[in-house]
């Protein structure tokens, strides 16, 4: 039987994870890091939004009255003008049909290159294809920080271990 070719994500990106974001159980984020330093922020497979057949009511990149990630304007080869984000900077807020709201954070320091406006028109992309067309945002870390941004993030194996422990020790936690 021929072996299935690896996906584009598996081939060109390294998956990193941030679990229990800001102390909220199971709110896990995934950072797809390309060899060119660009990082794509997505929801991890274990995030509550992707569980139990949830449906999304609303997604907004309006973080506060004075801050919208949609107003991010980047220009030129060096990507000038992008909003600078810290690892706890909110990227968007997602409200499910059960009125539970989740905030997605950047997880890494860097310049916001783009947000995924496609999920505003089709929120189901976030549920159907979270690590490809349903991504949240693209961030470019500073060159000098590109090696150190993964400190504090989990590898795929470490992440799977955390999820496995959660499932075995506290099955009703998430």
From TrEMBL:
Keywords: Cell projection, Nucleus. It holds the Pfam family GCV_H. It is found in: Cell projection, Dendrite; Cell projection, Growth cone; Cell projection, Lamellipodium; Nucleus speckle. Its main location: other. GO terms for molecular function: actin filament binding; actin monomer binding. It comes from the Eukaryota. GO terms for biological process: dendrite morphogenesis; regulation of actin filament polymerization; regulation of filopodium assembly. InterPro entries: Abitram, GCV_H/Fam206, Single_hybrid_motif. GO terms for cellular component: dendrite; filopodium tip; growth cone; lamellipodium; nuclear speck. Belongs to the ABITRAM family. PANTHER family: PROTEIN ABITRAM. This is Protein Abitram. The gene is abitram.
